[in-house]
Design a protein that fits this description.
This protein has 20 helices and 10 strands. It has helices at residues 2-8, 12-45, 50-93, 98-102, 106-148, 150-197, 199-204, 208-260, 266-305, 370-377, 400-405, 421-425, 434-443, 447-452, 470-483, 500-516, 526-530, 549-555, 557-565, 571-575, and strands at residues 330-337, 347-354, 358-363, 385-390, 393-394, 407-410, 488-492, 518-522, 534-539, 542-547. Strand 7, helix 16 and strand 8 (518-522) form a beta-alpha-beta unit. The protein binds adenosine-5'-triphosphate (ATP).
């Protein structure tokens, strides 16, 4: 409730005004028959009806307008609350640490932003208003009952206490069932995301039916949990009416006996029973409000869970006194990395210095920890032990956003985002000028692609760049990184995405970049390696050897084997 109120508080005035207007609209509607009566009386007796007619018309329009505006204000509060919950959630989700997201399911996180926040709509408005208005009326009616006959009130209160008792028993069940239903909806979203993210793989493996079944299993669970919440809600509703009916009978019995022995007037009993009759509505309203709040609190729990996930602080830290204009040096000192505390060491005591300029190639068997080094330089993760310095400053001391500003990173799977080609290119440098853009397009040999696309740079490239080839995606990723004018360029080379012509062109681009910048390439091609100023050979997370191609060919067995077997293209000719 407290958490819910923190979302509602900024919009409390609008909600209050809305509730008061709806209430005034209700009063106006109630007054209409009375005014109609005076109008008809005036008509029958031949008196002037103009005043009554104007009042009736005014009431009619006023009540309708008050209700409409009131309902709009309540709906606006609901939308505002949902928006502010989404705002907070999205801002937090995109700042989560990678280690937090590694273990989460993107579809489930998505459901929290979409489905769970929607559940706040009713809880933050209608349910709260129901609870407040209902409770207010219940208190008023009970006060009137106390005035009429405290003894009968005691009977009513006794019976009403059982509503509170059953509420204590039922409400947690409603909350639990709603939470499970929302979790199941998260699971539906997660399995859909899994299926749509690997659409071709599913088709190629004939897995449509299995995946459909997996999604439907979660959907079925959501249905069962939803039904379970609905069952508990109807039990709460029906037990409320039953309790009020029972109290009606008890009051009738006790009151009747007291009237018979002369200790209560019949008029007082009738008035009491009328109040009891009126009590049904507000009590049901309170129960409805509290039950609705359970659904909201279940959703709120899933929303606020994100608050407990570790986030990155992108601004804290101190910039180094001076930053070079071109490349920036990097040093690793006895760096260890475990992705999980109890997991194996993916890097085990790596120490290396990479100067401000030059091309460093990192090679090694699959799983040796090559990509992990790049991830640590981007500070996607902190090393388990040891120190990484960029520009002479520990990466943990850098303001994260400024550190990443220095780096251009081309991931191995070269992701392209839904949007136009231009959006994708300027993604890392939104203020890049047209000239820079054209220059980078020429460097990365993207000109033929731009010319072939119907709207050139402004052509949408599909979800995850689905309408592009692997090589095109990779060149776009490289162009995107170059446009950032990085001082440290990290390239995770894809194994076989580029044809020979494009490959040699890009090799030239990278070599040119390395003349002014620190370039680190996780290399899978011999051509990349042979041109490197230094090569690091990683094996099982250890830096096994370092040197130039000819030094390593002469001095390192693993490198020699890698060069002849794993590193692609012209291997034989380069080795001999
Ligand atoms: N986010 C992660 N969580 C847990 N383990 C991870 C994670 N990323 C990588 N690993 C593990 O760390 C090890 C090193 O991975 P890394 O991606 O650095 O290898 P690599 O040398 O780049 O391999 P490849 O050449 O196949 O790309 C692998 O065993 C991998 O399974």
């Amino acid at each position: 409730m407290r958490q819910l109120l923190t979302y509602v508080r900024p919009y409390a005035r609008g909600l209050l005004a809305g509730a008061l207007l709806v209430f005034a609209g209700g009063l106006g509607a109630l007054a209409q028959p009375m005014v109609a009566r005076y109008f008809l009386e005036a008509l029958a007796t031949g008196r002037s009806v103009t005043g009554w007619l104007v009042l009736l018309g005014g009431l009619l329009l006023g009540a309708a307008a008050a209700s409409a505006v009131g309902m709009y204000l309540i709906a606006r509060t609901a939308e505002n609350v949902v928006f502010s919950a989404r705002h907070r959630l999205v801002a937090r989700l995109l700042r989560l640490r990678l280690s937090a997201v590694d273990g989460a399911k993107p579809g489930d996180l998505l459901a929290r932003v979409t489905a769970d926040t929607t559940q706040l709509r009713a809880a933050a408005t209608i349910n709260l208003v129901d609870l407040a208005v209902g409770a207010f009326q219940v208190i008023g009616i009970i006060a009137m009952m106390a005035y009429l006959d405290p003894l009968l009130l005691a009977v009513v209160v006794l019976v009403l206490t059982s509503i509170i008792g059953s509420g204590y028993a039922l409400m947690p069940r409603i909350r639990r069932a709603s939470l499970q239903a929302q979790e199941a909806i998260g699971a539906v979203a997660a399995s859909m995301e899994r299926a749509l993210g690997a659409f071709r793989t599913i088709k190629a493996n004939g897995a449509e039916e299995r995946e459909t079944a997996a999604v439907l299993e979660s959907a079925g669970l959501a249905r069962r949990r939803g039904l379970s919440a609905a069952r508990w809600m109807s039990i709460a509703g029906i037990s409320t009416s039953l309790v009020v009916q029972v109290s009606f009978l008890v009051v009738l019995g006790v009151g009747g006996a007291r009237v018979a022995n002369g200790s209560l007037e019949i008029a007082a009993l009738i008035a009491f029973l009328l109040y009891l009759f009126y009590l049904t509505g507000p009590v049901s309203q309170v129960v409805r409000g509290v039950a609705g709040l359970q659904v909201g609190s279940a959703a709120l729990r899933r929303i606020t869970e994100v608050d407990t996930m570790p986030r990155e602080n992108t601004d804290a830290g101190t910039l180094p006194a001076s930053l070079p204009d071109t490349g920036i040096a990097v040093s690793l000192r006895n760096v260890w990395m475990r992705y999980r505390d109890d997991g194996p060491a993916q890097l085990a005591g790596v120490s290396v210095d990479l100067p401000e300029r030059g091309l460093t190639a990192v090679v090694g068997p699959s799983g040796a920890g090559k990509t992990t080094i790049l991830a640590l330089l981007e500070r996607f993760y902190d090393p388990t032990a040891g120190q990484i310095r960029v520009g002479g400053v520990d990466v943990r001391d850098w303001p994260l956003a400024r550190l990443r500003d220095l780096i251009g990173y081309v991931e191995q799977d070269a992701p392209v985002l839904a949007g136009t080609l231009r959006d994708n290119l300027v993604f890392g440098a939104p203020s890049a000028g047209e000239r820079d853009l054209r220059e980078v397009i020429a460097l990365t040999r993207l000109e033929p692609l731009v010319a072939a696309l119907p709207d050139g740079l402004d052509t949408p490239v599909g979800h995850r760049g689905g309408s592009l080839s692997g090589g095109e995606r990779q060149r776009i990723a490289i162009a995107r990184a170059l446009l950032r004018r990085p001082r440290l360029l990290l390239l995770d080379e894809a194994t076989s995405q580029l044809d020979a012509v494009n490959e040699s062109a890009l090799r030239e681009v990278i070599t040119a970049a390395a003349r002014t910048t620190n370039v680190v390439v996780v290399a899978h091609r011999l051509s990349t390696v042979t041109g490197a100023d230094r090569i690091l050979v990683l094996e099982n997370g250890r830096l096994r050897a370092a040197g130039t191609h000819s030094e390593l060919i002469a001095g390192d067995d693993l490198y020699r084997t890698l060069a002849t077997t794993q590193l692609l293209a012209e291997a034989d000719s380069m080795v001999h």
